[in-house]
Amino acid sequence: MWFCAACAHPWPCGVARLHLAAEYVGKGRTFAVEMAELLWEATADLERIGGNPDGFELYGRFLGWVRRASRPARPDTPAD
Ligand SMILES: [Zn+2]
Predict the structure, then answer these.
(1) pLDDT digits over 41-72, tens only?
(2) Residues 7, 10, 16, 18, Cα dihedral to 10°
(3) Res. 79: pLDDT tops 60
(4) Fewer CB within 10 Å: C terminus or N terminus of the chain?
C-alpha cells in the first residue's frame, strides 16, 4: 500500500526520506534511479488494488525531493 510501517504516512515519509538520503550519500544518480523504480512499482501496485494514482502526487512523493536531498549538506566544503 506504500504507507510507512512506523508512522502510517505515505511512504517515503519524512523520516524515511532522511534514512534514504543518508543511505545514498554521494550516490545521487543511483539514488534517483532507485527512487524512479520505486515510483514505477508503487504506481503499478496502486493501480492493481484499484486505486487511481495521481502521477503528479507520486512524482513529488518519490522523486520531487531527491535532487535536493542528494546535494551535499555543506556545498562550501571542498570535494576531495
Ligand atoms: Zn514514517
Answers:
(1) 999 999 999 888 999 999 999 999 999 998 76
(2) -120
(3) no
(4) C
Whole-number Å distance, alpha carbon 10 to ligand 1 midpoint, is 8
Q: If you measure from the C-alpha of residue 3 to the centroid of ligand 1, how many angstroms do you get, rounded to a whole number?
A: 8
- Are the C-beta atoms of 24 and 35 separated by less than 8 Å? no
Q: Break the chain into its structural domains and give their ranges.
A: 14-70
CA 19 to centroid of ligand 1, rounded, Å: 10
Residue 55, all three cell numbers: 502521477
How high is the pLDDT of residue 76?
60
Neighbours of ion ligand 1 (CB under 5 A): 4, 6-7, 13, 15
Secondary structure (3-state) at 10: strand
**C-alpha Rg value of the chain to the nearest Å:** 14
